[in-house]
Every structure is written in C-alpha cells, then in structure tokens.
Amino acid sequence: MAGEIPFELEHLIGLSTKSTESYVVHPVEKSKVVYSVGSTLVFGDLKDPHNQTLLSSHDSPITTIRVAPKGSRIFTAESATGGQRKLIVWDWTSRKQIAQLAGLQGEVLSASFSPDDRFLVAGDEKGMLCVWDLQTLHVCAYVRFDRPCENVCWGLVGELRRMPSYTFATCSASSVKVHLFDYDVRSLQYQISSTHPMAVPSTGLKRHFRGGFITEDGRELIVGTEAGEIIVFNMENRVFRHAINVGANGIVSAVFCNTESDGRVTILAGAGDGRIHRICGRDTVWEVQAQIAMDGAVISIGKCSLTGDGDEYIAATAAGMVYNIDGSLKRRSPLSYAHRTSVTSVAFPSDSMRSERCVTGSADGLVRVWDLSDYSIKCTCRVRMRGVAGPVEIGAVKAVVFLEDANQIVAAYGSGSIVVFDASSGDEIFKVHPSHLRFLHFLLSFNVIMQIPEAHRNGATTLCCTDSFLVSGGVDGAVRVWTRKSFSFVAQFTDHSRSIERVFTDVAAANLVHSIGADRVMVTYDLSRERKTHTHMLTVGLQWRDRARKLLIIVEGWGCFYVR
C-alpha cells in the first residue's frame, strides 16, 4: 500500500547462553564474530556494534556453531523437539546458505572442520559420527559409537601425496580414539582407514569431555572435562600423559594460545565457575600461571584482534556478558551485555520524544538502562535489603516505566512490589504498597530511603504514568493510583473480576486511563474525579464507525482483534 513505512530492525541485543562455544571469533577477520540468539544466526563486528547481519533459516534454537579454520564456511545445527534437525553450511563472504546436510538424526554434540576447510565431521546424541566432503556436500564416512561423541578435533594434514591424508580424534564417555582418514583408490573417495584407541591408565578414564584441540605441531590432544580437568594425550604414541586439576563446575571451553620458545604450549581454559585459567607446559609438566574471574560461567573463548597487540581474546559467559581479555589475564573489559533470562518488559521515556535511552526488565528481577548509541548498559537496578549480601528474590519484572524528567524508573514485580529506582545510579529510592492493605513500613538499608512491599496481592502486572499519577494493575484485579511526587496511595478501582492485563493513558485526554482485564472487560477511569466513566465487554466481533476520529485498538492473547 502506498505510504506504508515498514519496520526495519536496527540491532539485536542478546546471546544464547544455554549451549557452549556458541560465540565464535572468525579465524581470519579476528574482529568479526558469529553467534546465535535463539534460532537466529548473527554476524557481528566487535569494532562497530551497528554492523550486524541476521540470518534466520533455522526453525529451532541453534545449539552448535563452528567456523572453518580458513574462515570460508560456517556450520550451524539446531535443537528440535522432534523430526529432522537442520544442519546448515553457510558461506562467510555472501552470508548465504550453501546447503543443508543430511546424515544425523539426533542433536549435534560435537563438530569440527578440517584444517583445509574441505571436510566437516560431526557427532550426535545417538552415537553417530558423520564426515561430509564439502566439495560434493555428500557423506563420505559413518562411524557408530557405543556412547555419543562429545568432542572431535582434527590434526595435521599430510601433504606428501596428491590426495592428502587426515587425522582426527574423537572423545566419548567411554574412550578416546584416533582415526586415520585417507583416500581409497578402490571406492574413489575418502574413508576412515583405521581407528586406534588411546591408551589410558589401568584404573580407567571415564569422563565427559568438553572443548579441546590438537596442538599446531600435532603432537598433543588437549581436552577439558566436566570434572574440571585438562587431559593431555600424546597423538604420536596414542597414550594418556597427564591430567591437570583446574577449576570447579567443569572445563567448558579451551583455546590454544601459542608455543613458547622452549617448546611449551600455552592455553586458556574457561571453567563453569566463571574463571579463566592460563596454563603452560608440555607432556607431563604443566602449571597454572594466572586466572581471572568472569561474571557467569564461561561458555566460549576465542582469539581476536581489536588493538593489534596479537594477544587478545574474547570470552562469552552464561550471564550474557562478552569480555575482551589479554593473554596474561591481567585485564578484562566488557564489550557487550545481555539479559541472562527472558526479557519481560521494555520502556522508553514516557514524557519525552528522545530515544537514546531505554529500560528493560527481565525474569530474574533485574532492570537495566541502555544507551542505544553504543548499546551499552548505563546502570543495573536490583532490589537489595539490609543484612542480605546479594539481590533479594522479588520475582520477575512485569512492567517498567521510564520517567526521564524525574530521572526515575518504576518497576512492577511478580511478588506484588512496585519499586522506584534512580535512573543514573540504579539505586533503589522507594518501594510502595497501598496503605489500607498494610501499615507503612520503613526499612533503612545501603541505598534504600524507604521500602514498602506488596502493592498488589499475588503480583503486579502493568504500569502507566500520567503527568501527576502512577497507575498500576495486578493479579488481584485491582487498579490502583499513586501520586508521582511522593508515591502515596490515592485511589483504588475494583471493577475487574480477573487479572489486569494492561493499563494505559488516553491519547486525547490526559485525565483518562483505560484498563483491560483477563475477564474481557475494558474500563475507562477519570483520574481527576476518581471515578469510572465507561465499561465495555469485549465480545467476539468488529464494528467500524465512519464518523470515528480516534480509535482504540485492542489485540487479545487468544487471537481476537477489537477496535473501539
């Protein structure tokens, strides 16, 4: 239609944190990253946060992302509750899908590209391992294990023949094996020619493996375990060499740093307890040289280049944070932020046309103020209580209002509280509840001037503001009015029989407020007279009046559309 202005996505803020190694730095263009947000694949630029490309061919959340060593291709796999899962190969330059691979039925647990980008190997939860030739996009080898393959790494490529030979290692809970992958002249294709198990201690080595690699010289296989160890195997003799106890909650990600002049190897290992360890050594002699703490469990580490010093790394955490760290682990600086749980509410300044800042609330009770010029967090608001070291369990944020003229944020919580924060510092200023439900109660704490819980029984659900009043709705079906100046209780309306879904101000008359409940009733209130003016039952149907100049459009959760 003529005159239509389509919405254009400006930026996507977020990071999927439920899968490991889901934030990958490009091996050639080391300031570019690939990561997932749900089922969307995101191409980002660490130097320019506005430079972002989104690809959405997946139907379910992406669980696996791998970038080829030469950077030409990307492999992604999704998690699906049933049916065929999509395994997609992308072209880095064109940002387009090359092919969808077939061969695996279960969820992909491990995947890796060969050093020359020609082959891709992946293992699923059903114990199947599949090797694809990316020149033909056909399967060239299958292997079935007793246990799922949890980690796979490619070794050196033999270049002595016209058809090079390959080596890769697989790790499962029951064994670690080395596979030789050669060209078979009889079948005229590559096949797994032989498989050799690694020799382990006589007591056995039953571990769940997470994250690993084969060193650049091909001599050692280094993998992390859920027990918090770094395990070292000798690739030439195919034997276990050493186990290094590093961190709690398991080793989630490990990356090769460099080889020292004396032949020792330096690696960075990220643990589930949020620490990154710098480990140096060779064969059976290893030492932990340094460590640094992150905010949340480390889910991915990659080598990057932002300042050009050649010793920089990117670490992504389960808290949604992405850090830039140096190889010596003496410095860390945040690069991007995200909520660690579901975002439940968003608000721009209610009394201004400016849009440089916005406020979001999440299911873990955190309220954050964002600067949209660089997508950074200006402050984080959390409810604290005297005598309690950490945040207080107050429920999910159900609604937020940004009062820019007063530099305040008002948040409604699932516990029933309504809390007022300072928009600059994130300090809690006020917590309100109706005085007729509970006698006003003062609690002095670190940054709390007044704290009064439970504005609504069973939880608050929605907020809106006028020039003079704050209006809230709750699960109890009540609409309550508070003054903006002191947040004292003014009036209450109980015309709904079920939870209040939304309260909002009228676009024409500032003294009118509309409320919509789960009982399919819409009520209009005049705040200047503190009384109800109109009530409408939202039955199924639609009526259009030609003389209507202003319309009230309502879309219900069960699919009904209303115009009043």
From TrEMBL:
Could you tell me which PROSITE patterns the record lists for this protein? WD_REPEATS_1 (PS00678), WD_REPEATS_2 (PS50082), WD_REPEATS_REGION (PS50294)
- According to the lineage, what is the superkingdom? Eukaryota
Q: Name one GO cellular component term.
A: cilium
**Which InterPro entries does this entry report, sorted A to Z?**
WD40/YVTN_repeat-like_dom_sf, WD40_repeat_CS, WD40_repeat_dom_sf, WD40_rpt, WD_repeat_EMAP
Matches recorded under SUPFAM superfamilies: Tricorn protease domain 2, WD40 repeat-like
Tagged with keyword Repeat: yes
Q: Which UniProt keywords apply?
A: Repeat, WD repeat
**Pfam families assigned to the protein according to its UniProt record, in alphabetical order:** WD40
Segments annotated as WD repeats? 101-136, 336-373
The name this protein carries in UniProt is Guanine nucleotide-binding protein subunit beta-like protein
What is the species of this protein?
A: Palpitomonas bilix
